[in-house]
């Protein structure tokens, strides 16, 4: 079943409004949204609150999703594709603030350029984080200045790519002595997998209103 955005080629204003409406409905009390937990935390591992920004960019040729590639020397997730974000600080008033603050620190995205549309279901990672994905709308032009210590590259992928189930892959890998199952959505030279691909799958599910596979 094709996604409404793939079928109808709607205007940007319609996309923004429908994304916001579907995010709100997905987190409403009566919704039965599957919590996609392909990377569950280890037993009894306390979960650290964190947030990422999922920026939807209203480019002239269509809406894109902004992503980053982490530098190779980092201790955690070196070289992996991710959303800008990180753990919540004690003085962050909300997880929305966390996501916007981290995006400004990592890639120099001005908070004034960010229009929050809503959030996806929380995503638990195998490293013990409970991540709140904050979906935002960004209108060009805007500037990015990546932190060279953390971010090797900032790039964009058409939103329609992630909304097409033909681009969704499922893999298994031995991680720290355990077999883990995860999503992957390779795009060109970028191997998008793990928590980032899992959150993108949740975005696909919410915008498509389809059930997640078993």
The secondary-structure element order is: HHEEEEHEEEEHEEH
Q: Give me the CATH architecture, please.
A: Alpha-Beta Complex
Q: Residue-averaged pLDDT, rounded?
A: 86
| Named CATH topology | Nucleoside Triphosphate Pyrophosphohydrolase
Estimated structural class: alpha+beta
Distance between the termini: 17 Å
CATH superfamily: Nucleoside Triphosphate Pyrophosphohydrolase
Instruction: Choose one word for the global shape.
Output: globular
Report Rg.
Answer: 16 Å
Q: Pick out the low-confidence regions.
A: 210-214
Question: What does the main sheet amount to?
Answer: 8 strands, mixed
Instruction: Kindly provide the name of the CATH class.
Output: Alpha Beta
Quickly count the helices: 5
The number of distinct β-strands equals 10
Task: Determine the fraction of residues in helical runs and give it as a percent range.
Answer: 10-25%
> How big a fraction of the residues is strand?
25-35%
**Oligomer classification:** single chain
The domain count comes to: 1
Report on this model:
This protein is an alpha+beta fold and 214 residues long. It has a single domain (45-208), classed as Nucleoside Triphosphate Pyrophosphohydrolase. Helix content is 24%, strand content 31%. The protein has 5 helices and 10 strands. The chain has helices at 4-8, 12-26, 95-107, 159-162, 194-208; strands at 48-59, 62-70, 81-82, 85-87, 114-119, 123-124, 129-138, 151-158, 169-175, 178-184. The strands form 2 sheets. Strands 1, 2, 3, 4, 5, 6, 7 and 8 form an 8-stranded mixed beta sheet that branches. A two-stranded antiparallel ribbon has the order 9-10. A hairpin with a 2-residue loop joins strand 1 (48-59) and strand 2 (62-70). It is globular. The model is unreliable at 210-214 (pLDDT under 50).
């Amino acid at each position: 079943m094709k996604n409404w955005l793939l079928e109808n080629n709607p205007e940007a204003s319609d996309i923004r409004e429908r994304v916001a409406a579907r995010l709100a409905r997905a987190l409403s009390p009566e919704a039965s949204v599957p919590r996609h937990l392909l990377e569950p935390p280890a037993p009894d591992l306390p979960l650290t609150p964190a947030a990422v920004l999922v920026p939807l960019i209203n480019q002239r040729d269509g809406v894109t999703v902004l992503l980053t590639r982490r530098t190779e020397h980092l201790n955690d997730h070196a070289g992996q594709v991710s959303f800008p974000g990180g753990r919540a600080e004690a003085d962050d008033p909300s997880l929305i603030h966390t996501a916007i603050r981290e995006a400004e620190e990592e890639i120099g995205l001005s908070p004034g350029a960010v229009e929050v549309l809503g959030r996806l279901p929380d995503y638990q990672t195998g490293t013990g984080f409970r991540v709140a994905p904050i979906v935002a709308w960004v209108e060009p032009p805007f500037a990015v200045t990546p932190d060279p210590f953390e971010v090797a590259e900032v790039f964009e992928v058409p939103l329609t790519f992630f909304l097409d189930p033909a681009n969704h892959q499922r893999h298994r890998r031995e991680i720290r002595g355990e077999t883990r199952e995860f999503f992957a959505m390779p795009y060109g030279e970028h191997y998008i997998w793990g928590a980032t691909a899992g959150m993108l799958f949740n975005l696909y599910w919410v915008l498509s209103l389809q059930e997640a596979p078993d």
